[in-house]
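Lab channel / #folding
Pinned by the channel admin:
"Please post every new chain as: sequence first, then the structure tokens as a reply. Keep commentary short and put observations after the output so the thread stays searchable."

First post following the new format, from NK:
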Amino acid sequence: MSFLTFLRHPWPWWVAGPLIGLTVPILLIMGNKSLGVSSSLRHICAAILPANIPFFRYDWKKESWNLLFVAGIAGGAWIAAYLLKDPNPVVIRPALVQEMSGYGIQDFRGLLPVALFNWHALLTPRGWLLMGAGGFLVGFGTRYAGGCTSGHAIMGLSTLQWPSLVATISFMTGGFIMANWLLPFILRLT
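Reply from TO:
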């Protein structure tokens, strides 16, 4: 297997997991930095909106490494999606295809079902709930919890922070409730 072929396939958990886990000690060694993606939006707002809002009045330049980290995530995602794209169709469990077919979702060519995630679908009750209301709730929950899943579940748990344990349990519970109880109801909407 060539290196390029290796990069085009999903990495096994025993490779990807330790690589993600190694970011914690590396950031701590680099100057007690804390991993988190949601804080980068605050840094961007503080940099480009010089308003007199107390929440944005701080030295965002000290956190500019975080903006580079997020730019690396976006750049890596672009490279993975366009340059390292696997030419084979996405493999989906047959039981999931059958279940999604019951909701009228037939096209599974991309990473996300086109019937759910496109501009036209946004104007339907199902699309508005999934993308509009769901996006708002993710943003609100991130702010309310004081961080996102990467900040709490990777960095916070690694440094034994009690609020991160509570936040991670809440994220997981919300995900299970959404996936098993609310999502089937929302997918029945048109």
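NK: The chain has a mean pLDDT of 87.
TO: also worth noting, Residues 38 and 178 are 21 Å apart (CA to CA).
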